[in-house]
Design goal:
Order of helices and strands: HHHHHHHHHHHHHHHHHHH
Number of helices: 19
Radius of gyration: 23 Å
């Protein structure tokens, strides 16, 4: 969905054609691909990161959340920086931050080290990604050439998820998990070297930075996610858990106050005046947690339970990415004829059904018999949802606010995914603990006295079948809760209106 950000800003900007628009587009597309695939490339490497850096089952989710929270939370600020400081220099600054953080993260010797690097990666992505799309107008002519460029950009954004899964598996299998981070460095260095040669700078615009809004929203959502994940480890009555939730409430309340009082808010609250636009944000928020949960939990299941190698695990998820692309293409072609509502309802129903099927997961589930079917149904539904949500989000807004409206959908995708995943991880941890206790009791009830004594002394662990059963049960319960999120999203689709949204004049239908 990153391809939709700043579409209005991109369309209304005064173009300054570069000397080599084809090369310029290649540079921009490569940068966007690098940023987008980093949201998924680490998924396959998660079990290896957990072993190497001693993550707990719950803290492991921060490898994803640390990136998506800063990426989503600061994306609107990154777009504003490009307008005020110049898009090319802002783009280069974001790429530099991104590759330095990737290099540092690749050398991580502890979990905290890696998480800090991932958070800084998100900062770099939030600065570079919004300006990448806007730079297309600075380097292409308005009309067919620009539309083709937008199409390439959107296709690259959509392919990033699939390529990230496959590339993550290849690098982890053939080299090590560290290379899912190191791979960004040579690509980023080449991009930075080519930018001054082939990309034209944009004109600066006057404006103000809403640092207060950006910081309070990002820190508030981080505190909220931390509260859920900490509760999974330490309980709901723990002092730090309670403090995290209080901090989240205070920070998010401060964010709303700031946005209502600043002259140039990072999130214009009037964007939520439209019911359909608000519904589109809520639908995205409701479903992406389930999508992140699917990749997070099932990459561990196929490697730890089914015994897949990292590269085989990456290939196992390719059908999901492909079906999302196919259904997104179908919905984009038929949207003008049928309107968004049928696709939203169908997509939401399919995605909810896929999660319901995944909730039946057990330790005996196989890839073909228990995973592939529900993953394809879920992916088919999500593909139907993405394009209608994108166009509904920008329908009816003023030209100068279309960028903020579409970027807000991206923020909902990133931040909603982080919050949804944190809730699912909390449910997973609680269910796993209960199942661990139950399975251990059954194991000891059938164990010999010698085995019972060895287990009590910590010299004997439960058999692998018990470990697999605990993991599968936790995942199954987590998906059961994800069904509730999806059902809420489905309700929003039922109450949305059936209006055919329109993009700003000359803009292509975004596919990212």
């Amino acid at each position: 969905m990153t391809a939709t950000a700043d579409i209005a800003r991109a369309q209304s900007a005064a173009p300054k054609r570069g000397h080599h628009p084809g090369i310029a587009l290649t540079v921009i597309a490569c940068a966007q691909l690098m940023i987008v695939l980093d949201a998924t490339i680490v998924n396959i490497a998660l079990p290896h990161m957990q072993t190497a850096l001693h993550f707990s089952d719950t803290s492991l989710s921060w490898v994803l959340n640390a990136y998506t929270l800063t990426f989503g939370g600061l994306m609107l600020l990154g777009g504003r920086m490009g307008d005020i400081l110049g898009r090319r220099r802002t783009f280069v600054a974001g790429i530099l931050i991104f590759i330095i953080a990737s290099l540092v993260g690749g050398f991580a010797q502890s979990s905290g080290w890696l998480l800090a690097a991932r958070a800084v990666q998100g900062v770099g992505g939030a600065i570079a990604s919004p300006t990448a799309l806007a730079l297309i107008t600075t380097n292409t002519m308005e009309g067919p050439e620009r539309n083709r460029a937008f199409g390439v950009f959107a296709a690259v954004s959509g392919a990033g998820a699939a390529l990230g899964l496959l590339l993550g598996g290849m690098l982890t299998s053939w080299l090590s998990w560290r290379w899912v981070l190191f791979v960004n460095v040579p690509i980023g260095v080449v991009i930075v070297a080519l930018v001054p040669l082939f990309l034209a700078e944009s004109e600066r615009r006057r404006g103000q930075f809403d640092f207060g809004g950006a910081l309070t929203s990002t820190l508030g959502m981080t505190a909220l996610v931390y509260g859920f994940i900490h509760a999974a480890d330490k309980g709901w009555s723990n002092t730090w858990t309670i403090a995290a939730f209080i901090a989240a409430v205070v920070l998010l309340a401060a964010f709303i106050v700031i946005e209502t009082r600043t002259s140039q808010p990072i999130v214009p609250l009037r964007l939520f005046a439209s019911r359909d636009r608000s519904f589109s944000y809520a639908i995205m928020f409701a479903f992406v947690g389930g999508m992140m949960g699917m990749f997070f939990f099932l990459t561990q299941f196929v490697q730890n339970v089914l015994g897949y190698s990292p590269i085989k695990a990456g290939v196992a998820f390719l059908p999901v990415a492909l079906i999302i692309g196919v259904s997104a293409q179908i919905s984009s072609q038929l949207l003008a004829r049928f309107g968004p509502k049928p696709f939203l309802i169908l997509g939401a129903a399919l995605a909810t059904g896929g999660l319901a099927w995944l909730a039946q997961l057990s330790a005996s589930s196989g890839y073909l018999t228990g995973l592939l079917g529900p993953m394809l149904i879920f992916g088919l539904g999500m593909g139907f949802i993405f394009v209608p949500l994108t166009l509904t989000a920008v329908n009816g807004v003023r030209q100068e606010e279309t960028g903020a409206a579409s970027a807000m959908l991206n923020v909902m995708q990133q931040v909603g995914g982080s919050l949804g995943l944190s809730i699912l991880v909390t449910v997973f941890a609680t269910a796993s603990r209960h199942e661990q206790t139950s399975q251990t009791k059954q194991f000891l009830a059938h164990a010999t006295p010698e085995q019972q004594q060895a287990f009590a002394a910590g010299k004997l662990k439960p058999p692998e079948s018990v470990v697999h059963a605990v993991l599968a049960h936790g995942i199954s319960v987590a998906f059961s809760v994800a069904i509730i999120f999806a059902a809420v999203g489905l309700l929003f689709t039922l109450f949305s209106r059936n209006e055919t949204p329109k993009l700003p004049e000359g803009a292509p239908i975004p596919m990212g």
